[in-house]
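Below sits the subject:

***
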Amino acid sequence: MWLLLINPNSGNGRGEKVGRIVKEELAALDIQYIDISANSAKQCQENLKNGLTSSQSYQGIFLVGGDGTLNIAIQDLVNTGLGVALIPAGTGNDFARTLNLNLKDARQLISYYLSNKPALVDVGKVGERYFVDVLSTGFDSMVNERANAMRRIKGRAKYNLSILLVLSTFKPKNYEFSIDGVAFENKAMLIAVSNGISYGGGMKVTPDAKLDDGLFDILILTTVSRFEFLRVFPKVFSGKHITHPAVKILRGKSVEIDSDAVAYADGERIGSLPIKASVVERGLLTWRM
């Protein structure tokens, strides 16, 4: 017996289409499941809580959605030992990229999950919330704030427009850091505390991050001009930005950051700094390719 959680609103409705394919395939394979899908994030989380507290044991959970849906689900899945079989259907699908999943064929993914065993991977924890990909603050968090305020523009265009609007007035800030107890200060434009390799729909901010090394990859972008930022920014999609002299990448199990700024994790608003994050080693059971 499996659990099935579909967010039909993921990817501007892609979740509903992929969800139908998943149900058809599970029926064709005669896979038994309990459907705990819902139309709202709050109800999805409530259904998952109820499913996990029942006396029924499960082989895993098929999760159809994007990074936001996954972020909601892991709040109750960390350290449960229940395997997450992710069927990416969101806008960004960054954790699916980190897992090296096929982003197009749900049927092939189901076959892979049924034929292979899951593995334990790390997750991050900031405050009382878990995250699987990236905790960030600075420029990109301001972009998220601006993008979230836009109602009429959708998808990638909203994010690209927000980048230009924020960059026109953006100024680096002073940050106080403590990484594994070592304190320092740095003026920075952007900070990414990464468990995974990418965020923002394929931006490989920390391309060498590993899900099972017990460490964050912590990127700090120090001060560059607006022109230089725009010149270097496209390289983030290939991961080649890390060779730029303004980019530092440190590693650690725990990090504290303080400044007059806000933070986001897996695209969800965490709130104002200061923040403290730590690695939860081998906290999530999932399939990867």
Remarks:
- Residues 2-116 form a domain with the Rossmann fold fold (CATH 3.40.50.10330).
- The radius of gyration is 19 Å.
